[in-house]
Amino acid sequence: MWKMTITRVSNGYKITYPPNHKGTLITEIVIQETEDELKIHEELLWMIMEYFDFSGSKHDIERIRIVREKQN
Predict the structure, then answer these.
(1) pTM of model > 0.70
(2) Residues 3, 62, 42: CA angle, nearest 5 degrees
(3) pLDDT over 90 (residue 68)
(4) What is the mean pLDDT of residues 35-49?
(5) If you ran DSSP here, which 8-state letter would residue 11 be given?
(6) Which residues contact 13 (CB under 8 A, 6 or more apart)?
(7) Are strands 5-9 and 28-32 parallel, antiparallel or unpaired?
(8) Which residues pair with residue 8 across a beta bridge?
(9) What are the backbone dihedrals phi and psi of residue 10, each rounded to the nearest 5 degrees, phi first?
(10) What's the domain range around 58?
(11) Number of structural domains the chain divides into
(12) What are the angstrom distances between the C-alpha of 47 and each of 17, 22, 40?
């Protein structure tokens, strides 16, 4: 079963999950806030994409990407 629980805590997000098909043994991490307020959300999205293997390969015709953009 693939499952991930995300809980907002005082200093960031706590993520808990069972070991996945890749044999991951770490089942709980905390992504901590920094002065860069977008960084925590970017890290959270990357963690979800990696765990559920959403990112695909560079050879895929279509894939999901996380991109920061600055307005001019």
Answers:
(1) yes
(2) 50
(3) no
(4) 90
(5) T
(6) 6, 7, 30, 31, 40, 44
(7) unpaired
(8) 13
(9) -60, -30
(10) 1-72
(11) 1
(12) 11, 14, 11
